[in-house]
Amino acid sequence: MKKSVLILCAALSLGACSLFPPPYKVPVTQGNLVTQDQLSQLKIGMSESQVTYLLGNPMIQDTFKPDEWHYVYTSQYATSETKQSEVTDLVLTFDNGSLTKIKNH
């Protein structure tokens, strides 16, 4: 009898955990968040130091293409209902220290 009551209590206590909502999962963000206001201030002909002052250091600066800067921003939301991912990539190309091309993905 004691064994049956103990097993019944254990089964009920384990089942009670499903009554609580799932724990909060923090969204994971990485990289450089470039706002629309910052993009509007970005102009062709700006120097590398002006761009760095406005946007910060680039996330990726390729060794083989030092005149191409990548500002990458990734945000991942992982909950039990949805698994979303958001990636933005801003590519800036320089020529002789002057901004020549802006590519926003």
From TrEMBL:
Taxonomy of the source species: Bacteria, Pseudomonadati, Pseudomonadota, Gammaproteobacteria, Oceanospirillales
Cell location: Cell outer membrane
Residues of the signal peptide: 1-18
Outer membrane protein assembly factor BamE domain residues: 31-102
Gene: bamE
GO MF annotation: an example: protein-macromolecule adaptor activity
Organism: Marinomonas aquiplantarum
Keywords for the protein's UniProt record, in alphabetical order: Cell outer membrane, Lipoprotein, Membrane, Palmitate, Signal
Function: Part of the outer membrane protein assembly complex, which is involved in assembly and insertion of beta-barrel proteins into the outer membrane.
Gene Ontology annotations for the cellular component aspect, listed alphabetically: Bam protein complex
Family matches, as PANTHER family: OUTER MEMBRANE PROTEIN ASSEMBLY FACTOR BAME
UniProt-listed InterPro entries: BamE, BamE-like, BamE_dom
Domain of life: Bacteria
Keyword Transmembrane: no
Membrane topology according to the record: Lipid-anchor
Descriptive protein name: Outer membrane protein assembly factor BamE
Subunit structure: Part of the Bam complex.
Similarity field: Belongs to the BamE family.
BP-aspect Gene Ontology terms: Gram-negative-bacterium-type cell outer membrane assembly; protein insertion into membrane
